[in-house]
Amino acid sequence: MAGNGPDAGDRVSADAGPGAADRPTTSLSPRAADAAASVGVEIQDDGLARVTLRRGHAGNAIDLATARGLLDAARACERAAVRAVLLTGEGKSFCVGGDLREFSRLTGEALEKHLVAVTDALHDALRTFASIDAPMVAAVQGAVAGAGIGLAAAADVTLAADNVTFTAAYTGIGYSPDAGVSWQLPRLVGPKRAVELLLTNRRVPAAEAVAIGLVSRVVPSGELIAEAERTAEALRRGPTSAFGVTRRLVASGQTANLARHLDDEATALAAAAASDEGREGVAAFLDKRAPDFTRIPSRL
Fold this sequence. Notes:
Elements: H1 30-38, E1 39-43, E2 48-53, H2 64-80, E3 84-89, H3 100-104, H4 108-131, E4 136-140, E5 143-145, H5 147-154, E6 157-161, E7 165-167, H6 181-189, H7 191-200, E8 204-205, H8 206-211, E9 217-219, H9 224-236, H10 240-252, H11 258-274, H12 276-286
Helix pairs in contact: 1-2, 2-4, 5-6, 6-7, 10-11
């Protein structure tokens, strides 16, 4: 949850943002309204979900409202059985980590309870996104630190602008990791390098991030959103159920023994072949046409 290094407090804020007092009234509860203002979710009729971190003025730092907003967005995607998720952050930086200004206003037991509430919501959001079949594409730019790394790593495809820098930042302020960072980093970059990044908090530029496997691809900053849109659209048109099975097989394969994993693959393949998606895919191949997986409803 850490902010982006010792100076993160200069960039993050717990305020509602410019013009907050002038916002129109809403039927949402204050808690729900704050969450909706911090994280936007738009679910299109074609099954693409756009989830946007909206605290660009604060580097999209994660406060309690943002964590709850991410959870609300994940649950909305789950209810709608979306086909793909596109995660972006407004402003110069994707996410600089936790909102240190908000945290600094509390001490002792009050701070501990607050951080438990923040991480509970954030972690539930990550668990929910991981449990659905729809793949996630993340477009990251600028500073990505602390829990921002966790969000970026949670995506199945992470596209990084060429101006991005990653910094673990946690131990730099005396914190330990959250947002799955200590679970994801060793799997992406290896345990030795993960520990080094978590202990030293050195900045990792875009070129190194793709070289060590922290991101999928690097694109020019001016092309980031367009490329992320194209990638998400391609996944939206794909076999959503097969994507879900594939994602879970890759995740479980990190800890399963080979014999068990081979059995899991065989069972999953047989079910996929017998599914509507499998039948459409094979029929399209034999007919020498493009498959139309979008006509097959995603599973609830």
